[in-house]
Design a protein that fits this description.
The chain is α/β, with parallel strands linked by helices and 235 residues long. 22% of the residues lie in helices and 29% in strands. The protein has helices at 2-22, 120-123, 179-192, 214-218, 221-228; strands spanning 36-38, 42-48, 55-59, 67-69, 76-82, 87-95, 101-118, 145-149, 166-168, 196-202. The strands form two sheets. Strands 1, 3, 4, 6, 7, 8, 9 and 10 form an eight-stranded mixed beta sheet that branches. β3 and β4 form a beta hairpin. The protein is flat and about 55 Å long.
Length: 235
């Protein structure tokens, strides 16, 4: 019986090792299915993997042009890719150790990507009372408008990883997204006839100082003094 448990623990350990190896490759949450990348541009792709890997990246819009890179000593890597004109869907595949497919992002659209940021005026969403939205039924069927909702949080240093994911506009996903951002995205899509990606990063009541890098205030002593006088709740 003892030998059986030893064998079982050994198999479990081996299984966990394989599972951990499979998770050695990490992409930021904003590089996920349903993403909207800026069209006709140079877009950054980045992530983390063991530094001994020879990483290969294949984009469906340029399948014969394999991108090769390697992580640095901190296991971080980044590359830039040229994006095509508006349209899709596209995909990106990432190959790692011994050419194994580590991750694949699907249903990527090329279009206009916008950051929606600010205080409560931008944060206000459809879960709160909106009495003048009109008939938005046809807008909710528009799969070319997509949202990425940045979770509320704070840090004294820039964060490498955040939560969130890209979501297609649906009767469910739009409700907790910015009302201003929603109508802006729908109007932009109607006028340009291209996919629109909206990144919602807002927090009602916040002061501008916490959104500003500390290094900026070091260059302006007067600004630094004002930032130091912030109420403790937002400092």
């Amino acid at each position: 019986m003892k030998q059986f448990y030893i064998l079982l623990l050994s198999l479990l350990s081996f299984s966990l090792t394989l599972s951990a190896q499979h998770k050695d490759f990490i992409l930021p949450s904003i590089l996920s299915d349903h993403a909207v990348l800026q069209r006709n541009s140079e877009v950054k792709l980045w992530g983390w993997c063991p530094s001994i890997w020879n990483l290969k990246i294949v984009c469906s819009w340029m399948p014969t042009d394999t991108i090769r890179t390697q992580a640095d000593k901190n296991c971080a890597w980044s590359v830039y890719v040229n994006t095509p004109d508006a349209g899709g869907p596209h995909s990106i595949r990432f190959y790692g150790w011994q050419g194994r497919l580590e991750a694949e992002i699907n249903d990527i659209l090329m279009g206009e990507s916008w950051l929606c940021s600010g205080q409560s005026n931008m944060e206000y969403n459809f879960n709160w009372r909106v009495s003048d939205a009109g008939d938005i039924g046809t807008m909710l069927a528009n799969r070319e408008v997509r949202f990425f909702k940045v979770p509320v949080g704070f840090s004294t240093q820039p964060l490498e990883k955040i939560g969130g994911k890209w979501e297609v506009c649906t009767p469910e996903s739009y409700k907790d997204f910015s009302v201003v951002g929603f109508f802006f995205g729908q109007r932009l899509h109607g006028e340009l006839n291209v996919p629109v990606g909206l990144i919602g990063s807002y927090w009602g009541g916040t002061a501008v100082q916490p959104w500003t890098p500390a290094s900026t205030y070091a260059l302006e002593p007067a600004l630094e003094e004002k930032a130091n006088r912030l109420p403790a709740s937002w400092a």
